[in-house]
Write a structure and sequence with these properties.
Layout: H1 12-25, H2 29-57, H3 60-77
Helix pairs in contact: 1-2
Length: 79
């Protein structure tokens, strides 16, 4: 698959930051943009997962299920 070209017009501050990042990582500006997008994507996935876990911790039904599984596991250990 041929990568799609995306036009990017940074303001002067963003251009300086992009150039600095590319230089720090010894990569091209295109690679720096790709890596930055990937890093933000991964961070967003972790943020969403953490938010979902927080919701589970507040869910009484989920907590009851966790307690039931823990009790069952305790009973199995007795064997």
């Amino acid at each position: 698959m041929t990568p799609k070209t995306i036009s990017f017009r940074p303001d002067p501050a963003t251009r300086r930051e992009l150039d600095a990042l590319a230089e720090m990582r010894d990569i091209t500006a295109s690679d720096a943009i790709r890596q930055a997008i990937h890093e933000v994507y991964v961070a967003e996935q972790y943020r969403r997962a953490a938010a979902e876990v927080a919701e589970w911790r507040e869910d009484p039904e989920y907590q009851a299920e966790v307690a039931a599984v823990a009790e069952e596991m305790s009973e199995l250990r007795a064997w």
